[in-house]
């Protein structure tokens, strides 16, 4: 398993959302990201989220297509995000969608972690490619 790290920039643009019902708000956002470091890539995607009346309880799902280079290998792949916050306790899983890799990234597998410190975003990408 390989490990790559670096910073990234993210822009989230609100889209038309559903009306709140029963205290639950559903929202949609367009994602634009720029990864730097070992992963030099641009990404676009869509996020959907649900927030509840209970402070600290929410969930989101997102899909993003990442296009660029990973450790010099050019291609694209898709990431799936599943995030849940239960009364302030977060859980986040981001995985490479199976068989979504193209070009020199065909067959890519892995997971990506997001780190936020002092308002700055970075990633830790644990990945593998077939020999």
From TrEMBL:
SUPFAM superfamilies: SO1590-like. It comes from the Bacteria. InterPro entries: DUF3224, SO1590-like_sf. Pfam families: DUF3224. Residues 1-21 are annotated as: Disordered. This is DUF3224 domain-containing protein.
